[in-house]
């Protein structure tokens, strides 16, 4: 089983970006794929806060659905802005199953400055390749969302994200840190643009399995859910596993923490 993560440069217009990303995925994602992950604002150009023009969103979704079916893989579509019925824009990401059906969806508001807002729903999905959590953009960088999903059983976090080019070293460390502290694998996808400096990676608690750096393309890494399950197994000698990263908690402290400042 293999996890594939897409990292591509934004072209002059969304049509060109979509063609580059989808053509590359269709040629490089093999039948060994278990998961395919695209970034936040996967097909935009410079105007990341605008909906995709014409029927482009539908055509992108159709091709990603075909990819999921043809490779018998789960595909996190990345996200793109869509108009909300009540006005404004919503960033929407979908997890497609091997049959092409939508398994989960994450929706977040597009804020006035064009960035993506956070939310309080964090899907966890049982798949044929293990239990996965689906995260979009800024939710990944908060402490609680990854931890909530891992406590709910997520063994792999699929992240449609972006990585600020000016803070890449620190955020790269954070990707690995989140994997370690939650005893979870992380498949993090980001684009290459003026506001997103790449840094796509697949991380395990022990380190990175694959990193894209600032190179354009599709990276792949082996996926074995049994490894995470093993690392989460109790080992009171603290020599074989990392179970304490997720399970060693003192929830009785939460009341005192939340009560402070009231």
Summarize it.
This protein has 262 residues and is an alpha/beta fold.
Overall pLDDT level: 90
User: What's the total helix number?
Assistant: 7
Per the principal axes of the C-alpha atoms, what is the gross shape? globular
CATH architecture: 4-Layer Sandwich
CATH superfamily: Carbon-nitrogen hydrolase
Radius of gyration: 18 Å
How many separate domains? 1
Low-confidence stretches: none
**Which structural class best describes the helix and strand composition?**
alpha/beta
User: How would a crystallographer describe the biggest sheet?
Assistant: 6 strands, mixed
Q: Kindly estimate the percentage of residues that lie in beta strands according to DSSP.
A: 25-35%
Q: Give the oligomer, counting copies of the same chain as homo and different chains as hetero.
A: single chain
CATH class: Alpha Beta
Helix content: 25-40%
Secondary-structure element order, N to C? EHEHEEEEEHEHEEEEHHH
Protein name: CN hydrolase domain-containing protein
Pfam family, one: CN_hydrolase
Family: Belongs to the carbon-nitrogen hydrolase superfamily. NIT1/NIT2 family.
InterPro entries: C-N_Hydrolase, C-N_Hydrolase_sf
């Amino acid at each position: 089983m293999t996890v594939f993560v897409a990292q591509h440069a934004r072209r002059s217009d969304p049509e060109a970006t979509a063609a580059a990303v989808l053509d590359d995925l269709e040629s490089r994602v093999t039948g060994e794929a278990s998961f395919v992950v695209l970034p936040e604002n996967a097909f935009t150009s410079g105007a990341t806060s605008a909906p995709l023009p014409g029927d482009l969103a539908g055509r992108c979704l159709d091709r990603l659905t075909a990819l999921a079916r043809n490779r018998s893989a789960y595909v996190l579509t990345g996200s793109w802005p869509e108009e909300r019925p009540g006005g404004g824009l919503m960033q929407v990401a979908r997890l497609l199953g091997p049959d092409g059906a939508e398994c989960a969806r994450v929706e977040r508001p597009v804020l006035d400055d064009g960035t993506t807002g956070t939310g309080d729903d964090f899907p966890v999905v049982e798949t044929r390749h293990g239990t996965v959590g689906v995260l979009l953009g800024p939710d990944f960088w908060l402490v609680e969302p990854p931890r909530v999903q891992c406590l709910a059983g997520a063994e792999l976090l699929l992240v449609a994200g972006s990585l600020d080019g000016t803070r890449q070293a620190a955020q790269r460390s954070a990707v690995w840190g989140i994997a370690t502290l939650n005893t979870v694998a992380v498949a993090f996808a980001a684009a290459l643009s003026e506001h997103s400096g790449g840094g796509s990676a697949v991380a395990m608690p022990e380190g990175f399995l694959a990193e894209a750096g600032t190179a354009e393309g599709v990276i792949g890494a082996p996926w074995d859910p049994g490894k995470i399950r093993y690392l989460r197994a109790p080992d009171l000698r603290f020599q074989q596993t990392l179970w304490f990263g997720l399970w060693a908690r003192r929830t009785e402290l939460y009341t005192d923490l939340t009560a402070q400042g009231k």
